[in-house]
Design goal:
The complex is a heterodimer. By secondary structure, chain A is an alpha+beta fold. Chain A is about 25% helix and about 25% strand. The chains are: A alpha+beta, B mainly alpha.
Chain lengths: ~525, ~170
Amino acid sequence: MAADLDDPLALALRAAADDVAPSDALRHAVLDALGDRPAARSRTRLAPAVVAGALAAAAGLLVALWPRTDSPEPRPPAPRADAPVAPPDADAQAAAVARARAQNRAIYAAEHARWPAGTWVSIAWRDPATVAGAYKPVVVGASLEDVAAAGADAPHRYLFRVGEEGDVETFVSSWYAPRFAGGGFVAALGIESWQGGDAVVLVKGEHRVRFAGATPFPRVRATIAAPDGSPPRRTGDATPELWFGSVGPALMLTPQDADELGLSRFEVPGTETVGTVPCRRVRVTVEVPGLDAKATLVGAVPDVPYARLVAASRARHRFWEWGEGLVPTLALAPPTLPGLPSIETWVAFGNDRVLGRGASPQAAIEDADRFPDVVYQRYVLRWPRAELPVRDERATQAVRVALPGGVEVDGRVRPTALERGGAEGSAGSGASRVAVYVVPSMHEAEWIRAGLHRAEGGDAGVSYYTSLTFEPGGRGGEPPPPTADGELRVAYAALSVRPKDGAGPGFDGWGVIVARVVP
Amino acid sequence: MPIPLVERARAGDRDAFAALYDATARPLLLYALAFTPRVDDAEDALHAAYLAAWQRLPTLRDPARFLAWLFRIVRHAALDLVRRDRRHAPLPDGVAAPALDAGPGAPLAELLEGLADETRALLLLRHALAWDVPAIARVLDASEPTVRRRLARAQAHLRARHEGRLAHGR
């Protein structure tokens, strides 16, 4: 029977079907409308008559054939936790905080020897030009209450008990997640924990809470707040997720957390070096829902450029290098239904899990964008991973590529790509139906500002494109290792492309960026 | 793994339903094209079908029959759409359909032009998806010998149509 698949007509049918795939709009229209009566799909693509027909058909099916059943309310659109949260004057605020911190550090260095152990201290320098009258930058007391009000509205404040400040070093084996809780977390909360597989149980007295299933590695949820209970500047997830383990700081937070909670007013002098990442030490209040457990502890906030956190996460997210026992737990491919062949798909991966999935890189990225929490870096890969075809890229055209974030770079692309509206054609077994833009040099900051770190292709893409594009006439082979001149990276991006010589058509849409990224 | 997924979706788990969608959307889209040759219309049929399936899932007694059940819903949805729009009235074998606008489904529609719906469905499942006979039998709720027999007939129809068109210079 299988011979019939090689029949020319059968092959023609299969080739004609190659370009037929459900649209991303359909996926959103279906999944966003669950729980309600069928809703209208994108009206930009469908003629009114077609929409009306579809709605009528859907309503007819539901009303005439089947009674309505109760179902949960549809999910509201998730907020993007790592969308920019800073106010417009963020740079000025950051500068004011940095200046005040430097002053407070100098005050601490000059005076700390005078304070007895156990004493509570507030150090809050202010720019004299902003203060009416006199003020005391240093307030010392026997209890936290004695000093808590001093400098509470200063741009930066050290607030600590003498003896807890200073530099510390903390071991971690990787950057586990944007937020992670180490052994000090349970100690501060006075709770016990049990772990098994992907589950963790937290216990305090009669209360017990179990967390499981989010990723192969245990995670818990807790509220995090400024110690004075002041509300955050932005409403995010009330109980964000924390990787949970026995190593690392009591609590690792994100720079966004510190900004939103105003934690620069609750710093402890000193640096906590977590692995090789220097972090500021901050007082923060945590509470585990369901347990009678609330405490203020000294956590850590990374004090490094954002690119460093992206790099740490890039290493962590290389899930294809994880142990053989872990990869099958990641639900990378859609389920194979009984008797049917498996379906190839694209996945967006980060924070130890599949964040999004789709029939194309764009669809997977859009799906992953619904994930409501901070993700420093994501890979976007075809799964199952496969060797991608090698192509001859000797003839290329110089183009100017505009990326998100106002980033513009020079690149090269196949001359036919722009004529085809940014498509590479159907050859290549779906490796990419969008064109490849080779960018000889791009700065790390540009890479991140354009958001390319949130859609990186991983090694498969690099080994595919490298020799084609950076070695004229090359036809495959291993990618060169990273050097001081940078490393090769691949990412998927929304872009706008114009020929450099001004001749021929431009293109707005999606493409693959292959760039040498320099630090 | 798949049956627990169906059970989870039946219990109201939207993520499980999303996984089922991802696993079935493309085969079902191609299947719907057997009844309505425009991809837009086929997507509309799928839209209606998936929402109906989500509403109706609690009544599915045997999760192992989920696929056949879903294919049946898509077929009903596509035919319902066709009934409401007589542009796409089912054609008997040998009757040429009007020309279609260019689009991703146009080459497919042209190849299958003039064939009956059920013939197109079998050819799409077998050749566009390269499914084997047991898989086709499972989703169409038919016996394997029946599918094998109908498939042979469908392939003969396709060949005859093609040779006929060649003879007429089309």
